[in-house]
Design brief:
Strand content: under 5%
Largest sheet: none
Distance between the termini: 19 Å
Number of domains: 1
InterPro entries: NAD(P)-bd_dom_sf (IPR036291)
Number of strands: 0
Length: 38
């Protein structure tokens, strides 16, 4: 499909990891339409 993705290793029970995921995602994509947790 040619879609871009970003893999980020994070402990989502850790607030700083969550902030890092949001920051990296914002820098890479701007608006996010969906997330997949595998």
């Amino acid at each position: 499909m040619g879609s871009r993705c970003l893999y980020v290793r994070a402990d989502l029970s850790n607030v700083e990891d969550c902030r890092n995921v949001i920051s990296l995602t914002d820098k890479e994509f701007g608006t996010v339409n969906s997330l997949i947790n595998v």
